[in-house]
Amino acid sequence: MKNTFRNRGLPSLKESATDRRRQLVTGRARVGGGIPPKLFLWGLGVLVVGGVLYFLNFKAELEAQRSAIFTKQRATAQLLAPKLIPLRDQIEGFVRELAKSDKEFVDSETDFNAIWSAPGIYLRLRLDETHQPETLRKAAAESLRDGFTSCLMKDLQAQSMSAGKVCRESTECETGEFCNEYKKCSRPSSPYNMRLLYRGLLILSDEWVKEVQEAGTDTMLEVYDHSLDSVTQVDIPIAIEVHQRARYAVVVIDEDPKEMPKPYSDAYESLAERVQRVPHNARVGIWDLKAERPLARLVARAEGELLAAGTRAPSQSPDAVAAQARLANSCGLALDVKSRLAPQTQP
Questions:
Q1: Does residue 5 fall inside a structural domain?
Q2: DSSP assignment letter at 166
Q3: Each residue of 262-294: b (16+ CB within 10 Å) or e?
Q4: CA-to-CA distance for 128 and 139, rounded, in angstroms?
Q5: Residue 293 lies in a domain
Q6: What residues contact 346, with CB distance under 8 A and at least 6 apart?
């Protein structure tokens, strides 16, 4: 009985399977719970076409957003070109001049005591960073006031750089303030960092343009757009104002010691910080920005020692010790320059 059933059933199953294959090929069968294959293929095609159209539309919107950013950037460039770029080129020319020669010069008719309290621009970098425009500008964008400026130049109206309101962008600050390197709102004080100028010029750099071109989402482009607005509305007007007020430019070029010191601790320490931490020679140049002429060129010694005052001992953590060494050497450099340019004020 079993064999008879199998013999009768197998041909029927084979015939049914053959019919189903024929129907699938001809499109007359129903698959997926009763959906005709042609309808299924049409639906799949609609999804594919819709996805392509969405991608093209999304790409077009990104390009429109990118184009709007570059339009604003070009408008900003027209503002910067006649004001900040000539000043940048002037300062960079001073740097190259100081880097080429260590021949000393002092204008005997200049009252250097007046310079220490006058509005000025300050830039500090390593000698190796002066040879190429790219390395020079990168160093200038990171240049900040330090122990040299603290011990030499005074701004009686200066406020603490860490005392203002917390910020992320300069647009969050009050009128006349900018978001400084401590992420605090503050008013610029003399000597003005070249970093302030180069932050405004950053949006004209090839690197910034490349980053915007490679941004692949609308969120990333919104970040660049917001940053551009912050620079355009706050940083650039302040940079133009303070640099137009500046009367002098002071440049310090650190010469690397014969043996580059190793990092002091596991914490990050830049090459510039490592050089400033140990005694070394430095070239100091001072220029009259209005007359575009040098007032002094010196080779001085950056070397000093901090002496503890009071009963409280200074911190002995590696980072604190390194910072104290940089401060001592930079202040020693300032006192050396001050004693040679204005001997009557030597302590």
A1: no
A2: B
A3: eebeeeebebbbbbbbbebbbbbbbbebeeeeb
A4: 10
A5: yes
A6: 338, 339
In this structure, the answer to whether residues 175 and 323 fall within a common structural domain is: no
Q: Are 276 and 330 in contact (CB under 8 A)?
A: yes
How many Å apart are CA 143 and CA 193, to the nearest integer? 7
The residues, ordered by sequence, that sit 6+ positions from 135 with a Cβ below 8 Å of its Cβ are 128, 129
**Contacts of residue 109, Cβ cutoff 8 Å, sequence gap at least 6:** none
The tens digit of pLDDT for each residue in 144-181 reads: 889 999 899 887 677 777 788 999 888 888 888 888 87
Q: Which residues pair with 166 in a beta bridge?
A: 184
Strands 178-179 and 185-186: what pairing? Answer: antiparallel
Question: What separation in angstroms does the CA of 272 have from each of 72, 268, 277, 321, 345?
Answer: 35, 12, 9, 16, 30
> In terms of domains, do 109 and 213 share one?
no
Convert 222-256 into a string of H (helix), E (strand) and C (coil).
HHHHHHHHHHHHHHHHHHHHHHHHCCEEEEEEECC
* Stretch (H or E) spanning 13: helix 2-26
Q: What is the pTM of this model?
A: 0.76
- Where b means 16+ CB within 10 Å and e means fewer, 29-51 reads eeeeeeeebeeeeeeeeeeeeee
